[in-house]
Amino acid sequence: MATAKRFTLPLLFLLMFLSHSTALYEDQVGLMDWHQQYIGKVKQAVFHTQKTGRRRVIVSTEENVVASLDLRRGEIFWRHVLGGNDAVDQIDIALGKYVITLSSNGTVLRAWNLPDGQMVWETFLQGSTLSKSVLVVPANIKMEKQNTILVFAGGCLHAMSSIDGEVMWRKDFSMESLEIVQMFQPIESDVIYAVGVVGSSQLDVFQINPKNGDLVKHYSATYHGGFSGHVSLVASDTLVAVDATGSNLVLISLQSGGINFHQVHVSDFVSDITVPVTLLPLKLSYMFAVKTTSIVILFKVRNWKTLEIVEKTSYATAVSDGLVLSEGQEAFGIVQHKGNGIHLKVKLADDMGSDLLNEDVKIDDQQGVIEKVFINNYIRTDRSPGFRALIVMEDHSLLLVQQGEIVWSREDGLASVVDMTTSQLPVEKEGVSVAKVEHNLFEWLKGHVLKLKGTLMLASPEDIAAIQGMRLKNSEKNKMTRDHNGFRKLLIVLTKAGKILALHTGDGRVVWSFLVPALRKSEACETPSALNIYQWRIPHHHAMDENPSVLAVGSCGHGSSALGVLSFVDSYTGKELKSVTLAHSIVQVFPLPFTDPTEQRLHLLMDNEKRAHLYPSSNDSLSTFRKEQSNIYWYSVDYERGIIRGHTVGSNCMSEVLDDYCFNTRDLWSIVFPAETEKIATIASRKSNEVVHTQAKIIADHDVMYKYISKNMLFVATVSPKAAGDISSATPEEASIVIYLIDTVTGRILHRITHPGAQGPIHAVCSENWVIYHYFNLRAHRYQMSVIEIYDQSRADNKDVWKLVLGKHNLTSPITLYSRPEVVVKSQTYFFSHSVRTMAVTSTAKGITSKQLLIGTIGDQVLALDKRYLDPRRSPNPTQAEREEGIIPLTDSLPIIPQSYVTHSLQVEGLRGIVTVPATLESTSLVFSYGVDLFFTRVAPSRTYDSLTEDFSYALLLITIFALVVAIFVTWVLSEKKELREKWR
């Protein structure tokens, strides 16, 4: 038997080791998660197409990103996300090897190494006033010499060294209240011209020595009509602007050391033009462009008093900056829509009659109109000149067009997700296979041998790559049908451009996209904005002939009185079912927990006049709403005045025409925070669809506590007015945070806590009966996390067994929030070493699985922290009963385990939000993180206790069972022989 033990124990140990292995191996990356990188809507682009090396384009975007893109495939060479408060003003290239960026309203100037994006130097510019920033890198200085970078910001003109960023000289214009609008250095001149505007009518011109900043000459003149918008430089001695009325063009001559004005009426050239007109900020020699609400007009400046129209196109037209060709000529591009595609023309500025390029390109009709175009030239293989165009579309996507084809495209609108929801995939019909994968016996055996080698850590790098390729090929995660575990879903996101995209959770691919027409810029709606997206119809399992749909909500403007728009979109096809332009504004949207007979979910839309509008507007929905009207409550927050109010539905709206679907609202209660001491900083509440498995919580010694579970509990955090700014803007004596737990039905304050010496920013998350919030402690100079758990004391009598037996308990008695609750609160505070961007909590289908706190860190990663670490009942020396319950001994800080980062080594740049969605499998929660990047993964806070992992090796299990059977048989034979030998003795 000793021989049998020596043989079987290692096998049992190996089997036990395999069953408890939960680490993420290299070949498992990408099986359950995906990561997508974006840059956002491009504002500026500078091509760098040297003869040797990689051809690239440097771009800056509205998401404050500076990036280098490969011109051949559109991939990102390098990228820097500068942050929300560091907007990129301008970019340029110096010395052919440095990317120069000016950001933060002209206060930060940086140089990045062009090949790899490493920062070479950084300079902070000081100014006395707030002004528009201008960056100029003069091109007429030889490359082998040091370039002088000119920056106007903060009322001062700076000359910087391109080598180390040092300030060579500085000239202050703040005393003259001057706003520099143009800086240039004529090719044959040794002085710098700085053109500025004082007020709205005075124009000043300064001639400055570029070596020391001395003023060579200064002259000014006043134009009594005033200027509006941009001032364009069309020649070294001619500028053009639009007057204050927007109906006249003003030509400005700088000849003979003076300033002369010449006014031209736009109506003299176009009789039916609508005013005001806007001057486009282009860089073209002797040309400029203006646009109206319907057309774009391109003018040629013959001399400073003579204009000529050379092109007149529709509004959806983009004109590029001038491109200097090798022959010294200047070309520019015009892109306009034509049928189902676009038409690209490249013309010479000196010869408008001939086209250097004239081609049509087909594009996706869901990309909208063209907003910007940047052109670049190259030499084809046959030595003829060619042109490529980088086009920015209305949906923020980016295209590179060359030789009449789209070389590559980027869906960079996904860098600006404003809201998201999910949708189930259709059910796979019986007998129909969505993915047909053919396997023969050899491939099956080869696959299992490779998996066995990987499990035993004997696989080579080539084997690991083959294993990962086989798993991705054979995985069912990319099917377009739902699975029984609920892992396959559609993530439906709404972007800032008003575009809805459906992403597959399997690999993140775009299943369909739809640019909402109601959220596009038009004459009726010049400043549309996308607000939210909601689930509109969720068919039950018995109504599978109806597709689910979503509701996109937007407004035609940014004010509270802007009219609202609704769009209803099919979740499977991406087709718009209908669109509604409302006659009222949308301030708040409340999805109600009721549906009409057609499975459409009821919504209440609040306008700026405190009226509630019911959608869908049908008799069935109205009947359902009337039945539940007395149980509908909501709240509103006025951050400026520091007031929280509770509301309910009143009578129908009284107007000239009776509207059955419009209701007045009644104020039930209000809480006014004193403006002298408190300012509302953060609010948080539970998810409306959160599932709580049980109200009872078993604690040590088999005692029971009942959770206070209410979806109407609101977390409110206020800060002292002096501490409302950034960290350290107030002293510990001046700073304080006050926490409130408020019942939104009655306005009753359930609990209140004060944290003296604490300051925001405050991030909070609510779930079940607890709240966790993060803030900064000025006294300790550390971040802190606090947890509050609230329990219902009125049900404590239910612990009596005899009352339960005799039926005298109150577990089945109705609960009303109007009765004063008897609550008990437990709280605890811990130090936390990270700053936080956002927080969320995992959610599961039945609420049985343990909770994890998902923390978006300042490093743009997502950290999963077990809720047990934030248990307020933790103590330094827990009792034996508490240890058996799972109480962790108390420490002053929360641990950060490197393996707890659900994003692994990846970063979700510009992280703004984390959304969790329950899977059908109770142990698993789906996590979607969005910012400039997107990241999706699955987490199992209590491990996958209810299923086997996808990479479970059934072959190894069979081999192990077979080996155990053989071992048992061998040991039985050996044992029989041993017993026989002992009997013969």
Automatic annotation (TrEMBL):
**Subcellular localization, as worded in the UniProt entry:** Endoplasmic reticulum membrane
- Domain ER membrane protein complex subunit 1 C-terminal, chain residue ranges per copy: 767-984
The answer on whether this UniProt entry bears the keyword Endoplasmic reticulum reads yes
What does the UniProt keyword field contain?
Answer: Endoplasmic reticulum, Glycoprotein, Membrane, Signal, Transmembrane, Transmembrane helix
The record lists the membrane-crossing segments as 952-975
- One Gene Ontology CC term in the entry: EMC complex
Task: Note the InterPro entries from the entry.
Answer: Beta-prop_EMC1_1st, EMC1, EMC1_C, Quinoprotein_ADH-like_sf, WD40/YVTN_repeat-like_dom_sf
Spell out the Pfam families in the cross-references. Answer: Beta-prop_EMC1_N, EMC1_C
Q: What is the membrane topology listed in the Swiss-Prot or TrEMBL record?
A: Single-pass type I membrane protein
- Glycoprotein listed as a keyword: yes
Signal sequence span per UniProt? 1-23
Q: Which family does it belong to?
A: Belongs to the EMC1 family.
Q: What protein does this entry describe?
A: ER membrane protein complex subunit 1
Species of origin reads Aristolochia fimbriata
